[in-house]
Design brief:
The chain has a single domain, classed as Pnp Oxidase, Chain A (Roll). 16% of the residues lie in helices and 37% in strands. The protein has five helices and ten strands; from the N terminus they run αβαββββαβααββββ. Strands 1, 2, 3, 4, 5, 6, 9 and 10 form an eight-stranded antiparallel β-sheet that branches. Strand 7 and strand 8 form a beta hairpin. The N terminus is likely disordered. Bound molecules: flavin mononucleotide. Flavin mononucleotide binds next to strand 3, strand 5 and helix 3.
Length: 188
């Protein structure tokens, strides 16, 4: 059966990850130092009906317990904190430089007060792990939460680290097992 031109694009059955190709975690070419603190990323937890996203600049990816893993750090004061605690999955999305303003917005406004997707024009979509990613992302890491721990200031070995916490709102660290990696086929 011949498909009418453009029909697939209009169909509601278009997969949310159309436009992306799946790669293995070990095929990620990005430099993590640049991707994390240099480019920032969006950390998103919840499902399409009820999710929140925030900008992060601190984090890591690598291997733990022989699994590909992402490490993210969320202060308890963030609206996202409740979402990542309540849900078993989350996503980490990286963007090209043209979305810098959108990430700036998501890192300086709270989901308690606004709809970040509506304000930035970012398009949320259902990730295959039930969480939410953004269609404009250039790199998406779908994660399953496998560990969490509150940072203990008593264990800081360099006293300067304490200066990052004038409000004593120590991060909670989450380790996510990377279950899927998507790279955008073309620059959005
Ligand atoms: C560049 C940048 C990096 C940030 N990195 C983090 C981070 O790693 N962890 C964190 O808890 N907050 C971080 N923030 C702050 C949150 O993104 C910010 O407080 C956001 O408004 C929280 O949104 P929410 O209340 O909707 O969760 C960062 C903000 C910016 C601008």
């Amino acid at each position: 059966m011949r498909r009418e031109k453009g029909k697939r694009e209009r169909s509601s059955s278009v997969r949310p990850d159309a436009g992306f190709r799946r790669i293995k975690p070990e095929a990620i070419k990005d430099n993590p130092f640049q991707a994390m603190e240099g480019d920032w990323f969006l950390l998103t937890a919840g499902d399409l009906k009820n999710y929140n996203t925030m900008t992060c600049g601190w984090g890591a990816w690598g291997v733990l317990w022989s699994r590909p893993a992402v490490f993210v750090f969320v202060r308890p004061t963030r609206h996202t904190y409740a979402f990542i605690n309540k849900n078993d999955t989350f996503t980490v999305c990286f963007f090209s430089k043209r979305y810098r303003q959108a990430l700036q917005f998501c890192g300086t406004h709270s989901g308690r007060d606004c709809d970040k997707a509506a304000e930035t024009g970012l398009s949320p979509a259902r990730a295959s792990n039930g969480s939410v990613f953004f269609k404009q992302a250039r790199l998406v890491l779908e994660c399953r939460k496998i560990y969490q721990q509150d940072l203990d200031p008593g264990l800081f070995l360099d006293p300067d680290i304490g200066k990052c916490y004038p409000q004593k709102d120590y991060h909670r660290m989450y380790v996510g097992q990377v279950t899927k990696v998507l790279y955008r086929k073309q620059e959005s």
